[in-house]
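Q: Structure tokens for this one, please.
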Amino acid sequence: MTVRYPAGHARFRQQFHAVEEIARGSGVDWTILRCADFAANTLAWAGQIQATGTVRGAYPHARTSTVDERDIAAVAALALTHPQHRGQTYLLTGEQSLSQPEKVAALGAALDRTLSFVEAAPDEIRSGMLAAGLPDEVPDRLLGSLADYAREAGPTTDTVRRLLARPARTYATWAQDHRAAFTAGGPR
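A: Here is the predicted structure, written as tokens:
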């Protein structure tokens, strides 16, 4: 998504743009799906929710329109099986812009328990991600984008609705469908 809507560190936008240019120049049919903030990324909160019922994160006012990975897969299948999508670029988001505390509340509703979001300094979150073994680029990309989305919400599109003739799945639906991952002993 950052190719069209720059957010975070410029190097990530440049890398994504370069990959798109390689696809366009490859001589084979292509369809580009631009998306970010996958609903599944919040699975990273499972351990915190299981242990304390609290998610610690930076930039609570950052707003994004989280996309369900199943909607991405459905659009990808459509693009692969219908030639009218060749040479097209689609920006895929959910249809509802949510803050991180609102996502935590949706998870709490799905789990039928009260959860909380506590703001932490970006450096603290970055250190925790690195300590968990993530490469530098992951917290750099996440925190850089969240900092920008705290100033201006990320984009919201109706692309999933237009292409699939149905609304994009909501984050609340995703949370309900994945609640086992957030309960003690649940899958990760």
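A few notes: The radius of gyration is 17 Å. The mean pLDDT is 90.
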